[in-house]
Amino acid sequence: MRRILMSSAAVGALAVTIGGAGVAGADPIPDCGPDQATALAIAVAHEQHDPRTQAPWSLIPVQSNFDSCADMSAMLVTIDNPKPNSPRQGFLFHRGTYVGTTLSTSRPFTTLDTAASTNDTAVFVYTSGRTCATCNDGITRVVHYHWNGVLPVMVEPIPPPQDWPTA
């Protein structure tokens, strides 16, 4: 008896060629990047830790709209063992490839607006002026990061930095 070994890509290509559907687990679509866990591990390996606290970044995103095929997607991360006022940083990705952080310094209370984000724009909400970690005061500003075909561009200016409340 003779066995024929085929790669998942060959099986998927054969299925599409003869009019069938692709095979689950087939090789990734060309021009798409790695899965979310791999992409985040690469980003964290590059950024290593929060510059302010020296604490390592967590490998579990707080929020994510990661899409390995999107022109712009993002993950919001915090440090390991976070508190409500722990630093957060936005990691940006182009087709699954890490392209940098949203800001040069991390900030507390940042969120990723996944509903407002699109295939080529990641939307972050920055808060400044909070008087305590659990207070719902302060000023929020929406900042869009748009993929311009070459790199991410910050569309709106960032708000003033947040003082780090300890309570």
Describe the structure.
The protein has 167 residues and is α+β, with helices and mostly antiparallel strands. It has one domain. The chain has 2 helices and 8 strands; from the N terminus they run H-H-E-E-E-E-E-E-E-E. Strands 1-2-3-4 form a 4-stranded antiparallel sheet, with helices on one face. Strands 5-6-7-8 form a 4-stranded antiparallel sheet, with no helix packed on it. A hairpin with a 4-residue loop joins strand 7 (139-147) and strand 8 (152-154). The longest helix has 12 residues, at 36-47. It is globular and about 50 Å long. The model is unreliable at 1-26 (pLDDT under 50).
Radius of gyration: 20 Å
Task: Please give the largest β-sheet.
Answer: 4 strands, antiparallel
Instruction: Please mark out the parts with pLDDT under 50 across 5 or more consecutive residues, or reply none.
Output: 1-26
Number of strands: 8
Gross morphology is: globular
Gap from first CA to last CA? 72 Å
Number of helices: 2
Strand order of the largest sheet: 1-2-3-4
N-to-C series of helices and strands: HHEEEEEEEE
Strand content: 25-35%
Q: What is the structural class?
A: alpha+beta
